Amino acid sequence: MTAVNSLIAVIGTLLVALIVSVWLPGIERKFVHARIQQRVGPPISSAGIMAPLKFFFKQTINPNSPMPKLYNALPLISLLSVIFILLFLMPQLYALAALTSIIAIVGLLKIEEVIYMFMGSLSKSIMSLKMPFPDIVKGAKHPNTTRTFMEELSSLRAFRLIAFGSFPLYIALFIPVALSKSIYLSGIVNYQQIHGPILFTMAGVLGAIVFFIGYMILLNEYPFVILKTKADVIEGPLMEYAAKYRAYVYITRGFLMFVLASLFTTLFLGIPPNLFSWNILVTIAVALIFPILMAIMSAFSPIFTNKQFYPVVAGVSIIGILALVVSFL
Amino acid sequence: MNENNKITEKNVIETEVAMGPVHSAAIEPYRVRLFVEDEMVKDAEITVGINHRGIERIMEGLPVEKANSLTEKICGICSNSHIWNSVLVAEKAIGIDVPERAQYIRVIMEELERLHSHLLYLAHGNEVLGHETFAMRIFYIRETVMELLRMIGGNRVQYGASIIGGVRPRCELDAMRIQKISEGMDIIEEKILDFADRFVSDPMIMSRITGVGVLTRKQAIELAASGPTLRSTGVETDLRTEMEAYEPFEFNVITQDDGDVKSNLLMRVLEIPEAINIIRQAIKHLPDGKITNRSWDMQDAPITKSYIEVPRGKLYHSYALEDGRVRNSIVRTPSIANIGAMQYAAVGHHITDAQLAIVQCDPCFTCTDRAIQIIKI
Q1: Per residue in B197-230, pLDDT tens?
Q2: What residues are paired with B307 via a beta bridge?
Q3: What is the DSSP code (8-state) at residue B178?
Q4: Looking at chain B, which terminus has fewer C-beta neighbours within 10 angstroms, N or C?
Q5: Other CB atoms closer than 10 Å to residue B241's CB: what's the count?
Q6: Across the strands, what pairs with B359?
Q7: What count of other Cβ atoms lies within 10 Å of the Cβ of residue B55?
Q8: Are residues A177 and A225 in contact, defined by beta-carbon separation less than 8 angstroms?
């Protein structure tokens, strides 16, 4: 009976997460971006529900990818990695030990990031496809250059995001570890049930700020979205994925918003996502608050270039390290 | 295959990022080749001519009134500038006096067009910066101008205000229209000043645009840049100071010193209050009288030239008249020189800033493409 209850809790929590997550992009766009920009904005269901639904029934077109099967599988793998993070956050699965540790969570987040990079590098948009003849038109300045792709450029930037931009988030993840002296989620949750939420400590407050900046970077949101020099153009995954594959990309983004909010409530409030607890309302509330705060920040920011991005990330990382030092003290 | 090409392989840069001719990053069809090393732009090549319609060829042999009307279709942003300059060619060639009231209305239309063109530029510039909120809010301000243009000309894009000898009766300004224009100017001035304050006090915006896409004064002069692009490098030149229609009005020629994206954006921000100032003077001192001089006879004329200052710079129109029909028409828009200059402005910057450096000159590619001279058919 306990096993059945656990199964119902896991499936129910997943369903709640899916239902909430599909509304998050719409809330962000309709109630925050559009209001700040003094326009009507799209319907609330458009970004997270209607757009993916529409894309599921569209005909797929395939770009000139060197590895088409892997390329098409990447959005689904990305979605699965995010779903697994949520699963391992649920208290019913804490028996899986190593898989429910911070190390596993970091690994799954890294998978999501790496896939984002490959989504760009494997797409090869026709918009920057090399012409089948050499460029020897009259006046051409450099006729023999090797042509690169916008998506490759995007991919390189995604690599920088992984290598550098995700520092703040991962530093923030290890602040609860330092305080609770446990890498296991169960240990972190138990610590907070005894000592109160980590968020209400000095290290926790600093960690929450760093976590939030990391959350924005991981979701490629303005102003940290160095993948986009001009909005929606250079970002590889959104460049060439069509039909159902694009729908997976959209669903993954909404789901990642919810999962990161769940990660925050688990690590900083000691509230793991669990359908059988009223505390799931706290998780849902955080899942709503984070996109709203993110949308407010992004609505008033231009896109950072490298020269602005690196100092900001370095500064936030230093705050994270400071929080780690405070937590050890 | 490049054996006969004069460019030696020694100078070939290894990596090229190509965009266009059709690309979702480009609002108009053009081709940009950025030659990069470690994401730094070492050289740039911009190719225009993809959307060429040969409008001068179409004008060849048309009755001059129809040809003038056709010039308005050259550009969707500075349509009034084209028809005004084209009409000026005929008026100069035949020697037609234009009523003073018509001159004032023409200036009002041109300055309204300058307002909406500059606001469009600011919105697009912010969009390229990735600042959607500023872009949306400027489009919101621009709506006031668009509605005023629609009220006067009956259309938001092509107003057909100027005709040979004056302005179209549809564009006559009565008391109600003057009141509306006056109210519109108050709204725009208040909002643009508020925007300017917020724009220059935003440290993130300023760090993003300062020192980016620099065009030196020497380069700008050598490359024949014109209009705000030239003035942003510190050269105080504005054809409006020499134009007969602008003689009754007092206004300042705005200049900036740095020739970068910031200077170009601020040029437009600061030119907006000047345009509002001219419009206010025009509606305050609008003379009475007729708006069209119809007492003229068509006559043959040799090639006659006319230059006017339009929102992007110096616009040139010329043609000859033969039996009331247009011959040897040539149109040269300011963008063609300004776009060429941007090839230099983009060099030396990170590839992220290249698009921003190129659009800082407010390029109008289709306007330029349509204006290419067909030498041989």
Answers
A1: 999 998 888 988 999 999 999 999 999 999 999 9
A2: B316
A3: H
A4: C
A5: 12
A6: none
A7: 21
A8: no
Euclidean distance between CA atoms A216 and A219, whole angstroms: 5
- Could you please report the per-residue DSSP string of A226-255? TT-SSTTTS-HHHHH--HHHHHHHHHHHHH
Report CB contact under 8 Å: B2, A301: no
Of A142, A223, A299, the CB nearest to B13: A142
Task: Supply the pLDDT for residue B30.
Answer: 82
Number of H helices, E strands in chain A: 13, 1
* pLDDT (0 to 100) of residue A130: 54
Q: How many Å apart are CA B192 and CA B84, to the nearest integer?
A: 27
Helical segments of A161-279, H only: 167-180, 185-195, 202-218, 236-240, 243-264
Interface test with A, best of B15, B352, B353, B358 (most A CBs within 10 A): B352
B113, B253 contact by CB (below 8 A): no
The chain B residue lying nearest A152, using CA atoms, is B17
For the structural domain made of B55-330, what CATH number should be given? 1.10.645.10
pLDDT value at A148 more than 60 = yes
What is the Cα–Cα distance from B329 to B316, expressed in whole angstroms? 11
For residue B242 the two structure tokens come to 């020499």
- Domain borders along chain B are 55-330
Nearest CA in chain A to B128: A230
CB pairs under 8 A between A and B: 129
Structure-block tokens of residue B30: 């053009």
Q: How far apart are CA B89 and CA A115, in angstroms?
A: 61
pLDDT exceeds 80 at position B329:
yes
Residue recorded with tokens 């994206």: B261
Give the closest residue to A25 by CA, choosing from A199, A221, A191, A213.
A221
Cβ atoms of B136 and B161 within 8 Å: the answer is no
Q: Rounded to an integer, what distance in angstroms lies between the CA atom of residue A183 and that of residue A186?
A: 9
Interface of B with A in 130-149 (CB under 8 A): 130-133, 136-137, 140
- The CA–CA distances, whole Å, from B49 to A88, A199, B289, B311 equal 58, 60, 44, 21
Q: Which of A37, A142, A223 sits opposite B35 (nearest CB)?
A: A142
Write down the pTM of the prediction: 0.87
CB-based contact B366:B336 (threshold 8 Å): no
Q: Which residues of A touch B19 (CB under 8 A)?
A: 127-128, 150
Token pair for A133: 């003849």
